[in-house]
Structure to design on (232 residues):
């Protein structure tokens, strides 16, 4: 696992790390102004107005010239939702080729134990108040994880290929991947995944991504908020 100081922890074992980024608000402005053969050297008020205009009117291609590379460590069920975002590049740890130094499994934080109320398309989620119900569920989850991990290790030590043995590992297991994405697609990701309709577990990650985005592209971020957090 990375030990870079910029690691943002998402309990219990999740991580979001900004590895690199290319461009900022000024990059967006200059990508737009090249239409007129013009270029700005610093971000002036009229440039900030231009970014707001681009966002509001969904003239979105200038936002594609800013690129972020993240390292993400999250449960597999979160990664499955994440990788539905096709406008990005991904490379993920392979359980075919390598043995992880440690296998880590997700269990909800206390406040994240919840029940689902309603019908498909109209669910609400309410906290589980009963300490007993939470305790039993947590115990069961850990027991299943331990059993799956044990049988996985037995299979591998008996010579079964990792690509076969991994079939018994649950989607609560952590995976790690690189996520390289342009700012336009990241806006779409934040709009959809840092939203109350999204599963809370991916929201935790998307909210951290949003904090990083706000620091790197403050004018674009403010414009995104003012435009109602919609995709461009
Ligand atoms: C709350 C929530 C619930 C969800 N539930 C389900 C579910 O039950 N089942 C399920 O399968 N998925 C589900 N999804 C995933 C969802 O359908 C999208 O696949 C995912 O959010 C990625 O969004 P996207 O396509 O906009 O992003 P990207 O794949 O990054 O695409 C970005 C944009 O590019 C354009 N685009 C990309 N590919 C195409 C294409 N092939 N044709 C035309 N335009 C394209 C679209 O404008 C798209 O918005 C859910 C997502 C959310 C947020």
């Amino acid at each position: 696992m990375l030990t870079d100081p910029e690691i943002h922890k998402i309990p219990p074992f999740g991580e979001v790390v900004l590895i690199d980024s290319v461009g900022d608000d000024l990059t967006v402005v200059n990508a737009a102004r090249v239409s007129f053969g013009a270029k700005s050297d610093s971000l002036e008020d009229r440039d900030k107005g231009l970014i707001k205009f681009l966002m509001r009117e969904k003239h979105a291609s200038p936002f594609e010239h800013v690129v972020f590379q993240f390292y993400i460590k999250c449960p597999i069920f979160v990664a499955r939702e994440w990788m539905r975002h096709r406008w990005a590049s991904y490379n993920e740890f392979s359980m075919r080729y390598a043995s992880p130094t440690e296998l880590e499994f997700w269990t909800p934080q206390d406040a994240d134990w919840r029940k689902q109320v309603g019908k498909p398309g109209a669910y609400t989620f309410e906290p589980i108040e009963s300490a007993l119900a939470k305790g039993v569920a947590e115990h069961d989850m850990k027991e299943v994880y331990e059993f799956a991990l044990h049988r996985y290790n037995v299979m591998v030590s008996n010579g079964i290929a990792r690509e076969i043995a991994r079939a018994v590992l649950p989607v609560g297991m952590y995976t790690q991947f690189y996520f390289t994405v342009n700012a336009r697609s990241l806006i779409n990701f934040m709009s959809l995944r840092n939203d109350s309709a999204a599963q809370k577990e991916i929201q935790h990650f998307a909210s951290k991504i949003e904090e990083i985005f706000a620091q790197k592209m403050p004018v674009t971020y403010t414009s995104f908020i003012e435009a109602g957090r919609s995709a461009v």
